[in-house]
Specification:
Length: 368
């Protein structure tokens, strides 16, 4: 071995590390950053899409299938960066101008991009149908926990592995009280008013439970769900102004916020049927849920129809419909997200409620 080769040997690990870091930057970090910027600033929101045309089509696709759009953009950006990096690299080696060194993409590269997009779309569809899915909040019924425009990460494995194109689950298990779930809206409302989009609500009653409300207070098996008043609440959502009392509610091992109206409505009662759950919105005065279905007689959601459980907010929603990355992958909690409102007093009230929790948060067993 020559002395020169011996002198260069210690630098080999460093050069290898530099090459690995360079590949990581060009193939992953930079395309990911550009994709996030494009999703945030270049892709129009549903509110900005307009009534028709290509812009409206893109906005609708981004709203309904953000995962597939994100994968497509990432592959397109990654391949574009790779193409120009190769061309400019060839320029630096040959000394020719970039426009002379560059050439149209080869058939092999185009075929690779098409194949990568096709495989990614198939994998994304399978992932969405059986493992996890993104859901966009479109109503105020879950305030203050969820805001309009929030993108939710729905865990489809929470209640068992659902086989594609069927309602059969492997390792099926029922939801628990206090959990936030997503389910199809059309099966649980009346006739022509059925909503085709999925609905997000909180589970209040399990099979056999007897659920009722008195002056806005939830009652499970003749046991009043404990709450703690956290002061007044106000939110402006477009032309809708929401006012009420903020309350911390304790149910089993879950603690969450609700909005109630003074002297809230009562509900005579409903016995939850086998194979279903009773659901409620966190904004008790606005939510259309199990209390009003079947012309006010009450109703449940079939457990087999539940799409999954929500535990995290993938990204927040802004008033203009765009994505707010400040709340990336934040858990469902007791945080109120009203940027234009002084929340110091509300946060103090919530903290005081948490310091003095009720002695019992578990309802008695059903006698039905």
């Amino acid at each position: 071995m020559s002395p020169l080769a011996t002198l260069r040997t210690p630098d080999a690990p460093l050069e290898s590390t530099k090459r690995a870091a360079s590949r990581l930057f060009w193939s992953l970090l930079l395309p990911l950053a550009v994709t996030l910027v494009a999703l945030r600033w270049a892709v129009p929101s549903r509110m900005e899409g307009g009534p028709g045309g290509l812009r409206s089509l893109v906005a609708r696709f981004a709203d309904e299938s953000p995962l597939i759009l994100g994968i497509f953009l990432f592959i397109a950006v990654s391949e574009t960066i790779g193409y120009w990096r190769d061309r400019l690299g060839a320029t630096s080696r040959t000394g020719k101008p970039a426009f002379e060194a560059s050439a149209p993409p080869s058939v092999r590269r185009v075929a690779r991009v098409v194949a990568a997009v096709a495989v990614a779309v198939v994998l994304a569809l399978g992932f969405r149908s059986s493992v996890a899915e993104l859901h966009r909040v479109v109503s105020v019924s879950m305030l203050p926990t969820l805001n309009v425009g929030d993108r939710l990460l729905v865990d489809k494995l929470a209640y068992g592995l659902k086989l594609p194109l069927s309602n059969h689950r492997i390792g099926a298990k029922p939801p628990r009280r206090g959990e936030v779930i997503v389910f199809p809206g059309a099966e649980n409302q009346d006739g022509a008013t059925a909503a085709p989009k999925p609905i997000v609500k909180r589970v209040l009653g399990l099979p056999g439970d007897y659920i009722s409300f008195q002056l806005g207070h939830a009652i499970v098996n003749n046991w009043i769900v404990p709450t703690c008043d956290a002061g007044p609440f106000a939110a402006v959502m477009g032309k809708l102004t929401i006012r009420g009392r903020l309350a911390v509610e304790f149910l089993e091992d879950k603690t969450y916020l609700t909005v109630t109206t003074p002297g809230g409505a009562s509900f005579p009662g409903y016995r939850v049927l086998p194979g279903e759950v009773f659901v409620i919105g966190d904004d008790r005065g606005i939510s259309s849920d199990s209390r009003v279905w079947n012309s006010g007689r009450g109703g449940g959601v079939a457990i087999d129809a539940i799409e999954g459980r929500v535990t995290r907010i993938l990204a927040g929603g802004q008033r203009d419909g765009r994505i707010d990355l400040h709340h990336l992958l934040s858990p469902l909690g007791l945080q109120i997200r009203e940027p234009d409102v002084d929340l110091h007093k509300s946060e103090t009230f919530i903290s005081n409620c948490l310091q003095s929790p009720p002695a019992s948060t578990w309802p008695p067993a059903s006698n039905g």
